[in-house]
Design a protein that fits this description.
Helices cover 80% and strands 0% of the residues. It is mainly alpha-helical and 468 residues long. It has one domain: Sodium/glucose cotransporter (Up-down Bundle). Helix 8 (160-209) packs across helix 12. The longest helix has 50 residues, at 160-209.
Length: 468
């Protein structure tokens, strides 16, 4: 059986499963709380693995491995930054967000920020948060659709436009049907697939290149000195920029609304503790596995035209056609279904945060689904007409959200008293710096873009806080 046929059959079967999950989950949606938070009954396995899959997928499987292929071992700092951000999120933020959500009946991250603000300021902060979330998620979701289109085109020889539209349509259908439960369950399925791929493919690749010694010797032979340096060949000062720039990726974790809602939906603290452990294991396997895969890809083929295809190139080299086809289909499905969490948050932003549900009583589910459609259409247009590297596009949205909301999240968890005007100013300071610095020439390790917006926003809030 040809690889393309295997991929197609596996893909069709997997998508039927996802849509079936959507149909089943649709029966559980009787309120906005059900649609957006799954009735606050998320268990540890679904919470941990769906969180991991939502935070990763296309940018990790294709983007991170591609970056490791191009840049070399210095990409390890990006992986370690992501892992460190996850630990802080689960072992500090999650417990407090779950408690606040259950105590005050909060549905979204925006609720957490504004539930105690007076009406004039509440409206201003909500509108600012909503704009930033929707703007960033259009680019974030576009990267997922772009990853799906690239993979479809590579597997089937489909035109890029048709491939991208097909992926977007399937994601739209099951997100429409099932809301949070469908998103969480399908993300759990894809997260398990990603972990399996991140174990099987590196092990098979290491065997294929002849073991650890042959891998190291082969990598040195095909790499420049910069690619086998942990500081990309830079001296002490610029090397510090590489390290801090990579580790600063973790700051983005704290401002991602599609990850924060997982904490708010947890059923109890026991589920949180178990989910934290599951997430930690998953992150270590997948992120470190993809860095290794990118490096090993250089040993197998040092002349790839598109570095973000290294995952598929390695799979086709180390596995028989049947297994490589199944792996390609599974990963392709995982890439396509990552966008669902961002879409659901976009829906909650328009429906719940901006109070469109109040203008049309009894239509909260319909409004949420229309919101999903709007964001899908906008993201599809961006992916089609503003193509960019998946890695760069996701990191732009990731950094912008983290800089806008992460410092304020910590300030509230620390119990700082921040005046409403300062909260609003800080949000725009972090976001504005992230966008502005992304337009300027890159600093070493993207230090300025990844570290400064979050740090300066945090310092601003610390200095402006009210002292009792």
């Amino acid at each position: 059986m040809e690889t393309a046929t295997v991929v197609l059959l596996a893909l069709v079967g997997y998508k039927i499963l996802l849509i079936g999950v959507g149909l089943w989950a649709s029966r559980r949606n009787e309120s906005g709380e059900d649609f957006f938070l799954g009735g606050r009954q998320l268990g540890p396995w679904v919470a941990g693995i769906s969180y991991s899959a939502s935070a990763s997928s296309a940018w990790t499987l294709l983007g991170l491995s591609g970056a490791a292929y191009t840049l070399g071992v210095s990409v390890i700092w990006v992986a370690l930054g992501s892992i460190s951000g996850m630990f802080v999120a689960w072992y500090y933020i999650a417990k407090r967000m779950r408690e606040a959500s259950h105590a005050d009946q909060l549905l979204t991250m925006t609720d957490f920020f504004v539930h105690d603000l007076s009406p004039p300021w509440r409206s201003k902060v909500v509108k600012s948060i909503s704009f930033i979330v929707l703007f960033s998620f259009v680019f974030y979701v576009a990267a997922q659709f772009q990853g799906a289109g690239t993979a479809f085109a590579g597997a089937f020889g489909m035109p890029r436009t048709e491939a991208l539209l097909l992926g977007a349509l399937i994601v739209l259908i099951y997100t429409w049907l099932g809301g949070f439960w469908a998103v969480s369950l399908t993300d759990t399925i894809q997260g398990a697939v990603m972990a399996l791929a991140a174990v099987a493919l590196p092990i098979a690749t290491l065997s294929y290149v002849g073991g650890v010694d042959d891998f190291i010797n082969g990598l040195v032979a095909v790499s420049s000195p910069e690619q086998i340096s942990f500081t990309a060949g830079n001296g002490l000062l610029l090397g510090f920029g590489i390290i801090i720039g990579g580790l600063s990726i973790g700051f983005g974790t704290y401002g991602q609304p599609h990850l924060i809602v997982r904490f708010m939906a947890l059923r109890d603290d026991k589920a949180r503790r178990t989910a934290a452990l599951i997430t930690a294991v998953w992150y270590l396997i997948v992120f470190l596995g993809m860095v290794f895969l990118g490096l090993a890809g250089r040993v197998i083929n040092a002349d790839l035209a598109n570095s973000e295809q290294v995952f598929f190139e390695v799979a086709g080299s180390v596995f028989p056609a049947l297994i490589a086809g199944l792996l390609t289909a599974a990963v392709l499905s995982a890439i396509m279904s990552t966008a669902d969490s961002q879409l659901l948050v976009s829906a909650s932003t328009l429906s719940h945060d901006l109070k469109l549900e109040d203008r049309f009583p009894g239509s909260h589910l319909l409004i949420g689904r229309i919101a999903v459609l709007v964001v899908v259409m906008a993201s599809t247009l961006v992916a089609l007409y503003m193509p960019a590297q998946i890695f760069s596009r996701v990191l732009f949205a990731w950094v912008a959200l983290g800089a806008a909301f992460g410092p304020l999240l910590f300030a509230r968890l620390f119990g700082w008293q921040i005046p409403p005007l300062a909260q609003l100013s800080g949000i725009w300071l972090g976001f504005g710096l992230a966008v502005g610095l992304s337009w300027l020439p890159d600093t070493t390790g993207d230090f300025a873009e990844r570290f400064l917006p979050f740090a300066l926003h945090f310092i601003f809030l610390y200095l402006i806080r009210l002292r009792s």
